[in-house]
Amino acid sequence: MIFTSKTRVLLTTILIGILVAAGLWYLGRQAQAISGASPATATASATPDAATGDDVEPVQPGDSGPAAVPDAAVAQGSAPKAIHSPDKVSRDLTLTPNQCKVRILDAVKGEILPDASCTPGAIDPAVTEANISSTICKSGYTTTVRAPVSDTDKVKKLSLQQYGLAPSSSTEYDHLISLQLGGTNAVSNLWPEPNREGAPGTTNPKDAIETRLNKAVCSHRVTLADAQKAIARNWVTAEKDLGL
């Protein structure tokens, strides 16, 4: 068969086009193999599975579930901010209704944590490791620094709204870092702590842990700063975290 020059040019052009297309197809397959997924698949995998849910979200009051992840400052164990306010509640944070959510670990046991972004904890700078014998380790100390009920009652009402909780005779307006651990009277250190299911009053499991931590600090088994960080991070696990 004899081809004219025009025919040869046309065949050559077609062959080059086929080779280019094959090369592009091969490169595309290689790129997909390296990435392990198509762009559509990668986008879908970055989205939380609706069936499993987002387990870092705080659970609603009355529900059970995984605790929310504390904010970065608390999680890393940095020192709580210092506010000296022995005669009134310092309104150092401005919170809005329903902004905060308690984190329920075990409702039956009363293991409930505050919202770390709303109640990160705060300490009184007047209490130091050097003066614990004349402050938190001295009988009657907490009565000298506790804010008057006339002030705390007003802030407690607002705090209940901020946490979206209804008033209850078993809910304690509690210092996250207790006064007997050098905690202070500030919005960032106070929260409406629900009690265990069926509790007759405000005495809750956290109270006993606060007392034991106070004794550990006063006997120099742990430092004041470490105890403050541990209870601010998670009062339920504070003793274990401190090796007590």
Automatic annotation (TrEMBL):
Residues 42-51 have a biased composition (Low complexity). The chain crosses the membrane at residues 9-28. Keywords: Membrane, Transmembrane, Transmembrane helix. Residues 42-71 are annotated as: Disordered. It comes from the Bacteria. This is Uncharacterized protein. It comes from Arthrobacter terricola.
